[in-house]
Design a protein that fits this description.
Arginase, Chain A, globular, about 290 residues, binds manganese (II) ion, 11 strands
Length: about 290
């Protein structure tokens, strides 16, 4: 299967299958043109895939070997640097093609800045959006731009999708007021625990789209990201919530966004790659 707007790039270090036979399909969206602080998320998909070389394919916790699973990697979206709308259009078309080629496979998007969550959400049309993020991302505009990484949750909300945000520790008053008005759930990183996650997510309509902005984690694990914030969550507190989510709710798609960097072996990419392996492993075991 050829995808019109994709190109071949470095592959995930796992045995891969064709899209038609896959249970999981990986797509990179290497766009970072609206990044306002630390650039480099355009290298995220490449850096995450390269970092998988460092990982064992057997996941101890789940007794699952990813090498036995049916995973496809269709490469990266052919983005248009500096043009979010054209890139979004191409992203939507590609995820739609993917769903047509194999409606049963779980799409896993590797970013790229957080704005690139929009194409898979629009194409997959979930009922709810669960996001781990340091930021509310509920601004109507940022730097006078609607199609900006800082506005992604707002754009998703405007699609009529229910939203729950976890690990938050940054936002402005306008966003808090918008969240209140639209009944958007959000839990501050200081107040976060798995019990609170379950309490909110158990009542969300399905299917759910899961977005993980890598900046949700403690800064020591993710120094290379667009807008780093101190005071984040630990790896295991996020994994525990994801296990509950994948076991109990229907998932439309998943993304791992805002991994940036310019060097192979960057800590942030290692965190992203480990998260990717855990997500695939837990879906195979628990989903
Ligand atoms: Mn963020």
């Amino acid at each position: 299967m050829e995808f019109f707007y994709t190109y071949e790039t470095i592959k995930t270090a796992l045995p891969l299958v064709d899209v038609e036979k896959a249970d999981f399909v990986i797509l990179g969206i290497p766009f970072d043109s609206t990044t306002s602080y630390k650039p480099g998320a355009r290298f995220g998909p490449t850096l995450i895939r390269q970092a998988t070389i460092n990982l064992e394919s057997y996941i101890l916790d789940y007794d699952v070997d990813l090498a036995d699973l049916k995973i496809a990697d269709i490469g990266d979206l052919d983005i248009v640097a500096g043009n979010p709308l054209e890139t979004i259009k191409r992203g939507i078309a590609t995820v739609e093609e993917l769903k047509e080629a194999n409606p049963n496979a779980l799409p896993i998007i590797l970013g790229g800045e957080h704005l690139m969550t929009y194409p898979p959400v629009k194409a997959l049309n979930p009922k709810s959006y669960v996001v781990f993020d340091a930021h509310l991302d509920l601004r109507d505009t940022y730097q006078e731009e609607k199609w900006d990484h800082a506005c992604i949750a707002r754009r998703v909300s405007e699609l009529g999708i229910e939203i729950a945000e976890f690990g938050i520790r940054s936002g402005i008053k306008e966003e808090v007021e918008y969240a209140k008005e639209k009944k958007i759930h959000w839990i501050h990183a200081r107040d976060y625990n798995v019990g609170k996650f379950i309490e909110i997510v158990k009542d969300l309509p399905e299917p759910i789209y899961l977005s993980i902005d890598i900046d949700v984690f403690d800064l020591s694990m993710v120094p290379s990201t667009g807008t780093p914030e101190a005071g984040g969550l630990s790896f295991w507190e996020v994994i525990e919530a994801l296990e509950w989510l994948i076991k109990n709710k229907k998932i439309a798609g998943i993304d791992i966004m805002e991994v940036a960097g310019t060097e192979l072996g960057d800590i942030t990419a290692l965190t992203g790659a480990k998260l990717l392996f855990y997500l695939i492993g837990m879906k195979a075991k628990l989903g």
